[in-house]
Specification:
alpha/beta, 3-stranded parallel β-sheet, 12% strand, Rossmann fold, 10 helices, 4-stranded parallel β-sheet, single chain, 7 strands
Length: 223
């Protein structure tokens, strides 16, 4: 059976796109590597920061995503994946506009959380992802409650994520994240931002959205 060609709509940020590609290839490679195309969005850095934190530039983002999806379709991709949680607020519009299926990352993660039998999770994501209720809606449909950081911690988390997008890591990040998780008193964590995999590892108590998308995409390639 000929494997499906996957299109990655990436650049959100570049390091995570690269990690996602590597993770996908590791999982999907049996005797041959999977056919994959990557379209990296030419994002304006200031607009990226303002979108993540305060939800500006909606039309700008959708236009870039639609342009990228069209390019991947023309390249012969049979399915598109977007390793970024926040822009999944555009998923319904993109899926309608696209001529090929686009995986819904939020639903993939929700399905995995349900499979693990978790009833309550601590959700780490951008302010924009929380405001659009992407995860809260999907998780509640599975009967799962989502706790979120307090306002002060969320502002620090947004700043941390924007630093990761700029490929700036700090030893203080790990301490902040560990402290925030400890204060939540939650046993189960959902990384609702793919960039956080740069600081966390998937484990029995952590669902990493980037890894779950890679695993699901690998299954799609050979199905």
């Amino acid at each position: 059976m000929q494997p499906k060609t996957i299109g990655i709509l990436g650049g959100l940020g570049p390091e995570t796109t690269a990690e996602f590609y590597l993770d996908l290839v590791r999982i999907a490679t049996v005797r041959t590597r999977p056919p994959v195309c990557i379209w990296s969005l030419p994002l304006n850095l200031k607009k990226e920061s303002e979108y993540i934190s305060i939800g500006k530039h909606i039309s700008y983002y959708f236009s870039l995503l639609k342009q990228g999806a069209t390019a991947l379709q023309k390249a012969g991709c049979e399915r598109i994946v977007i390793p970024c949680n926040t822009v999944h607020e555009f998923h319904p519009r993109l899926a309608t506009a696209s001529g090929v299926p686009i995986t819904n990352l939020i639903e993939v993660v929700g399905t995995e959380v349900q499979r693990r039998g978790w009833k309550t999770v601590f959700l780490l994501a951008t302010s924009r992802t929380l405001k659009t209720q992407l995860y809260q809606k999907v998780l509640s449909g599975f009967g799962i409650s989502a706790m979120i950081p307090n306002l002060a911690d969320q502002r620090k988390l947004d700043s941390l994520i924007q630093g990761l997008l700029g490929e700036k890591e700090s030893k203080t990040h790990q301490g902040f994240l560990e402290g925030m998780v400890a204060r939540s008193k939650s046993k189960h964590i959902v990384l609702g931002c793919t960039d956080l995999q740069l600081l966390f590892s998937a484990s029995a108590n952590v669902v990493d959205s980037m890894h779950e998308l890679a695993a699901d995409t690998a299954r799609q390639i050979i199905s």
